Amino acid sequence: MRLPNLLATKNGRLMAFFLLYVTEGIPLGFAATAVATRLRRLDVGPAEIGAFVGSFYLPWAFKWAFGPVIDVFSSERLGRRRGWILFTQVAMALTLLSTVMLDLPAQLGLFTIILLVHNTFGAMQDVAIDALACSTLQENERGVANGMMFAGATIGSMVGGSGVMFLSGYTGFQPTFFFVAACILAVTAFVVLPMQEAPGPVRERVAGSKLAQAGREMRVFAIDSFRSFLGSSGAFGGLLFALLPAGAMCLGLALQSNLAVELGMDDDQVAALNFYSSILGAAFCVLGGYLSDRWGRRRTLLVYMALMSVPVFYLMNELTRYGWIMPVSTTVANRPQVPAALLTAFWIATLAYSVFQGLMYGARSAIMMDVTNPAVAATQFTAYMALMNLAISYSATWQGIAIEAWGYPTTMLVDGIFGLACLLVLPWLKRDSDAAAVEAGQSGSAAGFADALGPKRARRLATGLGLLCLAWVPSSIWSEVFGAGKPIVGTLFTVIFIASALFLLAGRAVLGDAGGRTARLGVWVAPLLILLYVRYYLDVIASWLPAGVDTASFVAGVNNTMLGVAVLAGVLLLQLGAQPWKQMEVGAR
To answer: Residue 378 pLDDT more than 60?
Structure first.
């Protein structure tokens, strides 16, 4: 029997993109719920689990870099997007199966690296799926399709999380890797293979190699993104909104999995909780989008995100009441008895959080579309989504560190308060009508996406990032002042270094020759800023040195070099802050 081409009909397209997004949610649910729970049972600490979950989300923060590659390197025979979806899904299954024989937690480092590669293919798949949706969905289908896609991701997370947890009770944990891979390949076989993607417009032949063409597209991407982000108050507000956590996040990350294990829940109970949470999240995701259409994005998001902190504060209070403050080893003798009321409070908080988080997800993407310039929609919106994944990554990382340093209640208090910071940005998330945009020849949907303050925003952002890079010097010298919060401060500077590197790269593309030596040097400093992440592994690297090498001198020398990189980056950014940035003016080319 020949399988149908789901792209041929409206209902088929909705079902196809729902199922494709299921394959995106499966690995995320597998890592954040099933694997995180398993690691906690093996007595892996919350900080290591937080770093694991954070690294798993990291490729999604850089998925914008895959766009030009997918656009340029494609097969007309397989389909420009369909070919990439086929390749990435098979690669996801193979990388997952390669971990079956690993010994956890002894080989957690290798396991994390392989799953990082696995999720890189997942992020590439996401870019290809979104590109296929943009070229396939009719305009009157996109609203419903968006809700179906996010619901699909939630259901996929349930399959990878609770599905694996239920199954592991019968098969053990390692064999469930075959189940996850089989779920991904089932969509490949029954949805992707029968697809018949319509051919795209004929491409112009461009001189040079395809790699050079991808590089040119990356440069155009950088310029378009930079101008779009800083071109209007709404777009700049969207940049800050995307970088901040979308409300309190701890009950949606590894903290929840850690607590579930410590409170004595077995795998079936954890799976049941994840199942009900996912069903509620998927349903309220659709409802949240619907209500935001009727009552306004900013108004509904204000309520949704504020409510996300309520179950966090409620559970924080219950944990404090029953004295469950610090993590409790799963192997320690005479573990404290878990009060039934505390376990009930955990269920209530988790399910309530799923409702409010689902409402938020249903409206958040829509408001980002509202402030996205239609002329560069794919570029700007993809970048917003990538930054949101960066926020998830650093949130998972700092929370794992904070649990071990401060305990659960304090971590939840900080998360619940910090999660409300995004509410301060909501008033900016609107389209601005600017006469200058119209006078410059922009009309229709493009009006309101650029104003006269673009150069000023660029200067301020460069100056702010420069000062923050320079602040790493005193922060490192007097790091002991931060006490238990020292690793969290380090995570904050990691985000600053990544943002500064991206600014330097994009700034060079926008300024061109007008940026002079400062912008040219910034291109070389940007990769060094990203490499500062190795500061967390200096002791490991030092252990690889030949016998006789003074490891203490080596570590001190590398630390001083990294301080020099941060200072150089800070000086370059301050110099860019003094540039006129005329290239950001309305109508500039």
So the answer is: no
Q: Report CA torsion sign: 72, 75, 376, 380.
A: negative
- Tell me how far apart the alpha carbons of residues 346 and 274 are, in angstroms, rounded to a whole number: 12
Mean local confidence (pLDDT), 120-141: 80
Supply 72's token pair.
Answer: 């340029």
Residue closest to 225 by CA, chosen among 64, 390, 353: 64
Crossing angle of the two packed helices 142-158 and 108-136, in degrees rounded to 10: 160
Task: Give the residue among 415, 115, 385, 486 at the shortest CA–CA distance from 255.
Answer: 415
Under 8 Å between Cβ of 457 and 230 = yes
| pTM of this prediction exceeds 0.70 | yes
Query: Residues of 135-147 as b/e, b for ≥16 C-beta within 10 angstroms?
Result: ebbeeebeeebbb
Q: Is the pLDDT of residue 64 over 90?
A: no
Contacts of 560 (CB under 8 A, 6+ apart): none
Token output for 342: 């505390």
pLDDT digits (tens, 9 = 90+) for 380-435: 777 788 788 888 888 888 888 889 889 999 999 999 999 999 999 888 887 654 43
**Distance from C-alpha of 318 to C-alpha of 322, rounded to nearest angstrom:** 6
> 7-196+233-330+338-428, what's its fold?
Growth Hormone; Chain: A; (1.20.1250)
CA dist 480 and 499 (Å) reads 25
**CA distance linking residue 377 with residue 366, whole number of Å:** 13
Strand partners, 75: 79
Q: DSSP characters for 245-278?
A: -SS--GGGSHHHHHHHHHTT--HHHHHHHHHHHH
The helix or strand, by DSSP H or E, that contains position 164, with its residue range, turns out to be helix 164-171
Residue matched to tokens 């996109």:
142
| pLDDT tens digits for range 91-103 | 999 998 998 888 8
Rounded Cα distance, 59 and 119, in Å: 7
Given a cut of 60, whether residue 270 has pLDDT beyond it is yes
